[in-house]
Design goal:
Helix 3 crosses helix 4. A hairpin with a 3-residue loop joins strand 1 and strand 2. The protein has a 4-stranded antiparallel beta sheet with strand order 1-2-3-4, covered by helices on one side. The protein contains 5 helices and 4 strands, in the order E-E-E-E-H-H-H-H-H. The protein is of the alpha+beta class and 199 residues long.
């Protein structure tokens, strides 16, 4: 949906992106939603000027800035492009570090658990030179290990140590938690397998 704006835009700049070519950014400020007249916002339009002849002209991208002072308009696109790395980290924290898995009862517990997510990510990042890569058979080997590959390699290393220390004289017993019926145990095991083998 293209918003209807009266008057002329207050500012426009052209930036050169190494992948997309020339981009034109336009900014309207001191706008507000119809249902929230006291909530001011800035509206930014990103339009691609150079496009491939094989592709049809792409529609403009509309961005909304709500909050403190906006960075210079020429820097808006470079800041917006950084969101892809942030989005990947959020997915990693939710899927691999199980950020949203525990059912915590107080806001303080939620804050402490959330504070652990970047710390665990940095621990995995710093441990990339300490582990030998253990990738899945269908995965491509990497030269620079990501935190996900480091976590996978650490688990494989710990599993080898656990199996090597298991002997017939001193067998290790796996104790089940009191989680109820056979059906619940199978569900619990499937969750463990998803936690272990998730990418």
């Amino acid at each position: 949906m293209i918003p209807k704006l009266g008057g002329q835009q207050r500012k426009a700049v052209v930036v050169d992106d190494p992948k997309l070519g020339k981009l034109r950014l336009k900014k309207w400020h001191d706008l507000h939603f119809r249902t929230a007249p006291t909530r001011h916002l800035n509206l930014i339009q990103v339009e691609r000027l150079t496009c491939s002849s094989k592709r049809r002209k792409q529609p403009p991208l509309w961005l909304v800035w709500v909050g403190f002072e906006l960075c210079p308009l020429a820097d808006v696109w470079s800041q917006y492009a950084r969101r892809f790395g942030v989005d990947h980290w959020y997915r990693f924290a939710k899927q691999r570090l199980h950020w949203t898995l525990p059912n915590l009862s107080t806001p303080g517990q939620c804050e402490r658990w959330s504070d652990l997510m970047p710390l665990m990510t940095w621990q995995l990042w710093l441990a990339r030179d300490l582990v030998s890569q253990q990738h899945l058979p269908w995965a491509t080997p990497q030269t620079n290990l990501t935190p996900g590959r480091v976590a996978q390699s650490i688990f494989a290393h710990e599993s080898e140590d656990w199996l090597s220390n298991t002997t017939t004289e001193n067998p290790r017993k796996v104790s089940w938690l009191a989680i109820g019926s056979k059906k619940k145990q199978e569900k619990h095991l499937s969750h463990c397998q998803e936690a272990v083998f998730s990418p």
